[in-house]
Amino acid sequence: MKAVVVTPRQANTLRIKDVDVPKVPKEHVLLEVQKVGICRTDRDIISGFYGESPKGSDYLVLGHESLSRVSEVGTGVHSLKKGDLVVPTVRRNCFENCLNCRAGESDMCLTGDYKEHGIKELHGFASEYALSDAKFIVKLPEALKQVGVLLEPLTVVEKGEVQTFKIQQSRMKWSPKKALVLGAGPVGLLATAILRLKCLEVSTVATRSKDSPKAQLVMQTGAAYVNSKETSLKSMEDKFDIVFEVTGNPSVALEAQNLIETNGVVCYLGIYRMEQGTEDAGGLFTNMVLGNRVHFGSVNANKFYFEKGVKDLTRIRRKWNGFLEKIITRRSKLEDLERAYSPESEEEIKTIIDVR
Ligand SMILES: [Zn+2]
Ligand SMILES: [Zn+2]
Predict the structure, then answer these.
(1) Alpha carbon 289 to chain centroid distance?
(2) How far is it, in rounded angstroms, from Cα 39 to Cα 215?
(3) Which of 201, 205, 244, 295 has the largest CB neighbor count within 10 A?
(4) Which ligand is the nearest neighbour of the Cα of 156?
(5) Is 118 found in the same domain as 82?
């Protein structure tokens, strides 16, 4: 079968490799991959920044965002059957099986020795067939067969949202009204939708014009779209109970500090590149202290958030017709690596591979 592979930690080794269809261990499932989503993580691995091959292999199959059908189940698997529409989670328990991994929360792993499909020591799903431990598989209704590939990026938002409310509601009486989303890529748009489902007043900020596809999608959910080229964050007068920072741009993250309401919370979901510090760190910390503000980061998501995400994909689909479909702006075939992995233009949102 064909698989999209790289030699990890070496730039530009992306290629199609002919590999054997894997044998199915007792507790595993063979997946007939339907669709694979591509994001910055894949592009970073291709650039050689990170990525690790499985033990005994000199390559890594890419792909952590996926949608599959069950092709074959191991002899110990009774909860799934051939033909089921499914998405596997990405991370698997650490070698030590730490406190959190043991509790089903490998997204909160303490040791860092976890494995991740398509990223770290486990082959990914950008191939005709792939394997996953059956315990980490989530079933989807047939109605989601066109958009279920967006579940994995949505789970990043689900975790951010659930943790935001858990943190805030455990420390005070809290009734948030306004939320700010910084960034309108796939995760920013999905965050906008999830926060709108909670009936919050949402403003989403990005650099595109108001008639761009991203802005249109933001407005479809009833959120306000702010073009940061016309309205700088510094000049915004609103304060927000919740801020979701998705740009991964430290300057944007710093500029947003003045927009956090008293007792407010900021959830960081980006990966930040090092940047020369020019801001007043004292001012930043004082603002945090005097306003009881919480800042937290969130990465990865466990099965709980995938299951919640399935319900929310269905809700989004019913509420905003075509919203999810329009996030997918570029489609490629498995063999067309150039089309699949070349950089996206600024108007593009999500590239996927139609494996079948
Ligand atoms: Zn991703
Ligand atoms: Zn662990």
Answers:
(1) 30
(2) 20
(3) 244
(4) 1
(5) yes
